[in-house]
Design goal:
By secondary structure, this protein is mainly alpha-helical. The chain has a domain of about 120 residues. It is built from six helices and four strands; from the N terminus they run ββββαααααα. A four-stranded antiparallel β-sheet has the order 1-2-3-4. A hairpin with a 5-residue loop joins strand 2 and strand 3. Helix 1 packs antiparallel against helix 3, helix 3 packs antiparallel against helix 5 and helix 3 packs antiparallel against helix 6. It is rod-shaped. The two termini are about 20 Å apart.
Length: about 290
Amino acid sequence: MADYQIGDNLFANAQGKYYRVNNGVQAFEESPFDTMSNKINTMYDAQQKNQLDQLRTQRDKAISGFNQQKKDLAPQYQNQRNQADVVNAQSASRLRELMAANGINASGESLTTQANLASSRQNALSEINNNESTAIRGIDQQIAAENDPSREQAIVNAIATERSGKLADAYNQSQQDIYQRSMDWRNYQMQVQQAEMERQRFEAEQKMRELEYQRALAAQTAARSSGGGSGGRSRKSTSASPSAAPSGLTDAYNQYLQAKAEAKYMYDNKIPNPNSGVGMMYASMVKPKKW
């Protein structure tokens, strides 16, 4: 899209940027779209920071709690292992008492029973260790979920989508405003050209009126000259009304005086006479906003 002229040495490009041309060089200045886009970006930057800060605070708090749970697991499962040893020791003591009561010492049956007790202890300890490992893995998975980068990325993506929509709306509005200002500027220039044409026509009419007056004055002078040599009757009529003038001459003279006054008013005030046709045209013009 071509650039638009929207004011006196003021242009707008397809990106909604405003600039002036000084010695062939574009000098950019802040446009309404720049102002609006800055506000939109500032607003969404603040929203993104706020939401990310909240997420990170909640994440740090959750991870701290999970790490504490992991610390609490060690003594909890150690107590279970100790309890398993106590149970095993009690079982071994009862077994020895039973064997002594029955006169059984180092027989094969005794060894088998002791091996069973040792195996039972080991199984109990293995189960406790497995439970501890499972609990730790569960906590680590929760910590990993809290550290999942997709959670922050989801916030960034959502903010970016909203920001993009608002910027697009602002851009479309700026293009409509630029087009309207361009049309206003063109209409204003056309009005100025029309006013200049009307001024030139007005001046031409003034010159025509002056020429008509000069012609009428010359005709009067010729008539008086011819009446002066025609005898006493003509001289008496002339002397009876020395200020009288033909009707056509009087009208031309009045028009001349009016035109001369209007021309002087225009010259003194640099604007057309508001009582003239061009002045009324100026008064009816609606000048666009200040550029």
